[in-house]
Automatic annotation (TrEMBL):
Residues in coiled coil: 397-424
Residue stretches spanning the membrane: 87-104, 110-132, 144-163, 183-199, 206-229, 235-257, 278-299
Basic and acidic residues compositional bias, start-end: 31-46
This protein's record includes keyword Coiled coil: yes
Acyltransferase as UniProt keyword: no
Record protein name field: DUF389 domain-containing protein
Compositionally skewed regions (Polar residues) per UniProt: 1-11
Amino acid sequence: MQNDNSSATKSDQSEEASVGADTAATGTKDPGSEKQKQEERKVRKDVGTALGSIRSFLSELLNIRDNTDEADTREGIMKDIPFKGHTAWILICSILIASVGLNANSTAVVIGAMLISPLMGPILGIGFAIAINDIDLLRRSLKNFGVMVGLSIITAFLFFRFFPLQDENSELLARTAPDVRDVLIAFFGGLALVIARAKKGTIASVIFGVAIATALMPPLCTVGFGLAIGNLEYAGGAMYLFIINTIFIGIATFLVIKYLRFPMVRYANSKKRKRIGQIASILAVLVTLPAIYTFYNVWRESIFKRQATEFINTSVKPYKFSQGGYFMDRATNISFNDGENSVVQLFFMGDESIPSTVIETWKQQMTSYPYLEDAILQIQGGRSDDAERYQYVTELYEAKKEEIANKDQRISLLENEVERLRKFAYNDVPFEQISNEIRLQYEGVEEVGFANEIITNFSKTDTIPVFYIKWKNGKSSRSQEQDMKKMLDWLKVRTGNPNIKTGKVSIDS
């Protein structure tokens, strides 16, 4: 402080000497100049004070270190890592609920499953263990993470094996690869979660919100679904999405714990401490590299699609047709292929073909966008019947989607009615012709009857066709039984119905 005051005094003396020299040179004092300098010094002082106040306010607003409970945070994270007993059953139930929700295409049910799922425990444990250099905790977290993933996939696999998904194009199962939004949601969701866990008095609403936002459960259910139907590509894509989300949540945990300066685990053996530190650092790098690579790819894809959309809006849509044609914006296909030529596919309706000069102009305009320079522009338009049919079906589906959904139930009822009628047709037999054949083949038959009997075993009801035979007097019971057996075998072949039965009518009747 003395040095600062001394410097300030010297500065003031220097300024006074300078002013004195100027005064001596002119022979007169300049009160306006002196007042201006004082005002400038005052403004600088006020600005410095204001900046200091803002800095102090922001520091107090964003500070999370002072309200961090290290002991409770560590205990809470470690407590949620194990997957056994109650936690395992909660996970199984939540996976089954999510699978039912996916089967019914119900977002609300899947969200409910996310709220009760304990998926976050081992993931936070991995990030926390790497941050504090705890190799034993890392082993435990990785083991329980594997148990969690395996148990989830097996549960989903068994469910979808016995209850096939009704709609493979369910919006909840549609994405099997991460885009930039998934990556950002996972990262910032992980930040919010670990910050909430570190606060004195954990914020439960944040934990529930992160469980919903990061959506770790649908990809695991999708993996089980893909394995159940034998679609390994589908299962692999969903597993990749789950792993990427897991990695970014772990990275967020690692960064927050490092920022909060949690104490590192100390080992008595210096060589072991050094080796564990190296292992933790290598794991952190290995986990971060694929995350960076994935983020870079999805970021490039996002830019490509944004530039393609901008190109379409500025160059393609303004094009004026002279014969009533138009651009089908909804049918546009923008496909980004990493390492290969990406495609921008445009569809047009009407009898008017796009002039080649216009197409060449569009291709030239595409080169002005850095990410569209190597993209292929494909035009489906004008006189293409295939394109018209494609657009017709697309627009019809979009317009009638709700009506189609409402008719699903009616279709199911009609299918049941068709099945019922099929059974009646199956059970319908040419009675008159068969009865004459029976009379010619078997002597002693006096009467032939036929009926469709309704039979139930109290768990299932079915309709069975039955032929009733009345024999003439004089035919022995043994002979009747033998002929009845032969007749039953013959009727099964004759009618093509293996469920047909025969019955004997007593003479007294």
